[in-house]
């Protein structure tokens, strides 16, 4: 089976991901406030503190999930690499990609760095078709294609 050709994708747009996080955050706020208001015999001060604390927690969670730094994702035919554009001049990190969700026009990928360290934990990449239309098909083919075997594991022909 042939391997996918080399690919370089610049990930800059995350509007679908941010819209989904905003919708879930707002839904969480509505449900939490409705639950607190539906409770009987809660003092007004306790109710106010509960609403403020839950609102702050959900808004902070929404911001932390909605913020995704721009990055460059590369496939060289043998392996994946990811270069975050946040620290300027940072080296690309080699790793592997796993598809968590594929909805056709949107994917959630998990990038696992090849070398494990406290600073190199798995990174979730919400990728949408909008903004990378010319590369979208090649990217989907590359993430779903079987990985080539290393030379040491290649079967020998007799």
Structure description:
- This protein has 158 residues and is of the alpha+beta class.
- It folds into two domains: 7-13 and 69-149; 15-66.
- 37% of the residues lie in helices and 25% in strands.
- The chain has three helices and six strands; from the N terminus they run βααβββββα.
- The protein has helices at residues 15-38, 44-66, 133-144, and strands spanning 7-11, 71-75, 80-84, 93-102, 106-113, 123-128.
- The protein has a six-stranded antiparallel beta sheet.
- A hairpin with an 8-residue loop joins strand 3 (80-84) and strand 4.
- Helix 1 runs antiparallel to helix 2 (44-66).
- The protein starts with 6 loop residues before the first strand and ends in a 14-residue tail after the last helix.
- The model has no long low-confidence stretch (mean pLDDT 83).
Characteristics of this structure?
6 strands; 158 residues; alpha+beta; 2 domains; six-stranded antiparallel beta sheet; single chain
Distance between the termini: 19 Å
Radius of gyration, rounded?
Answer: 21 Å
Strand content: 15-25%
Low-confidence stretches: none
Q: pLDDT average, as an integer?
A: 83
Helical content (DSSP H or I, runs of 4+): 25-40%
Q: Give the beta-strand count.
A: 6
- The number of helical segments is 3
| Widest β-sheet, arrangement of strands | 1-2-3-4-5-6
